[in-house]
Amino acid sequence: GTDLTKPGAVKIDESFKAILMLGSAAIYSAVMLGPWGELKSAAFSIGSGAWWIFAGSFLVINFMLLPALFYLAVKITQAWSPLGRSVKYAFKALSASLIPLGLGAWAAFSLSFIFTNGSYLWGVLSDPLGVGWNLLGTAGATWTPYLSGVTPTLEMAALVLGLIGAGQTAMRISNQGQKLAQPWPILLFCFGVTVGLLWLLVG
User: Fold this and answer.
1) Angle in degrees, 0-180, between the axes of helices 12-33 and 66-80, rounded to the nearest 10
2) Which of 164, 175, 192, 202 falls between 20 and 30 A from 22, CA-CA?
3) What domain range includes position 106?
4) Average pLDDT, stretch 11-40?
5) Residue 48: CB partners within 8 Å, gap ≥ 6?
């Protein structure tokens, strides 16, 4: 984690990778867990007109909209307290704060599938080749979702931990001699994304 706060640690392509990780977690959460049947249908109808619209929207959100919003947050940060660094430098440096948030988002997204589908693992372990074995006596185990009552709490915890990590990373970057202003707009950006993910994942 400390590598993220070193001067020049993040290059521009890595900045976009961090944004892509965060944006794709939000989009896949909307597709897989959201209430929009048309969106899910478009995402799975590969090659159809609806799929091309979905794919185009995916690219626009991840490579235009989110970077533009993050750039705006960086621009506001620098405008409040310009300390000799260019906006491009600040964009690259502060984008490292999105990595913990993206990891938290993917952890929260994955938890629902792990606990919901975890019971399928017992049948696979008993009959890994699908030839009728029952090595562990669990080949006939029925599907039972695990920890369904606490999964939303665990998802919330993963997102909050990601937000805390993002905030700590942004503050360290600003305070370690990189001549950057205090990144309150960046923290607000991360908070807004977290609230959106909480709405998608937890409701």
Assistant:
1) 130
2) 175
3) 2-201
4) 91
5) 42
- Express each pLDDT in 45-67 by its tens digit: 999 999 999 999 999 999 999 99
What SS3 class is residue 30?
helix
The pairs formed by 165-172 with CB atoms below 8 angstroms and a separation of 24 or more are 165/1, 165/100, 165/101, 165/103, 165/104, 166/97, 166/98, 166/99, 166/100, 166/101, 166/190, 167/97, 168/100, 169/1, 169/4, 169/5, 169/96, 169/97, 169/99, 169/100, 170/94, 170/97, 172/5
Number of domains, the chain = 1
State both tokens at 101.
Answer: 């948030």
The contacts found for 79-88 with CB under 8 angstroms, 24 or more apart, are: 80/181, 80/184, 80/185, 81/181, 81/182, 82/181, 83/179, 83/180, 83/181, 84/179, 85/178, 85/179, 85/180, 88/12
Q: How many CB atoms lie within 10 A of CB 26?
A: 20
